[in-house]
């Protein structure tokens, strides 16, 4: 659970960070099945709901994408063996991939930026 929080944090950072920071993690793009599923899930999020509901929906999308595509996730992480936290790197790669290819992600990113704490995606109580 602790690692997933790092993935979610890095994912949001990748959406909010300047392009130069994301550029360090870019290289191999996330696989098409992983990003297609993640983008599809993002498109189903009702951004008019309260912050907590949107936060939960985004976390759900990320967790499902990672769980349903472990081979793609491991393949991405194997390409950067000594580059720090795997969870953080995965978040950067996923956020970077969606930034360039997923229109619904842009709306989600804007909504997260409007949240207090800029959409940290932390689970309640953590």
Overall shape? globular
Number of helices: 7
Query: Roughly what fraction of the amino acids lie in strands?
Result: under 5%
Tally of extended strands? Answer: 0
The secondary structure category is mainly alpha
Termini separation (Å)?
Answer: 11 Å
Largest sheet: none
The succession of helices and strands, N to C, reads HHHHHHH
Radius of gyration: 13 Å
Q: What is the averaged pLDDT score?
A: 75
| Helix content range | 55-70%
List the helices and strands and how they pair.
Elements: H1 2-16, H2 19-23, H3 32-43, H4 51-68, H5 70-78, H6 86-101, H7 103-114
Q: Would you write up a description of this structure?
A:
The chain has one domain (2-115). The protein is built from seven helices and no strands. The chain has helices spanning 2-16, 19-23, 32-43, 51-68, 70-78, 86-101, 103-114. The longest helix has 18 residues, at 51-68. The radius of gyration is 13 Å and the shape is globular.
């Amino acid at each position: 659970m602790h690692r997933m929080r790092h993935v979610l944090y890095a994912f949001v950072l990748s959406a909010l960070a300047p392009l130069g920071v994301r550029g360090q993690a870019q290289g191999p793009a996330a696989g098409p099945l992983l990003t297609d599923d993640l983008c599809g899930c993002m498109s189903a999020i009702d951004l008019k709901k309260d912050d907590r509901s949107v936060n939960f929906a985004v976390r759900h999308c990320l967790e499902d994408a990672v769980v349903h595509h472990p081979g793609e996730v491991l393949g991405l992480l194997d390409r950067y063996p000594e580059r720090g936290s795997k969870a953080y790197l995965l978040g950067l790669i996923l956020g970077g991939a969606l930034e360039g290819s997923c229109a619904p992600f842009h709306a989600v990113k804007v909504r997260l930026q409007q949240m207090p704490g800029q959409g940290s995606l932390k689970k309640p109580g953590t």
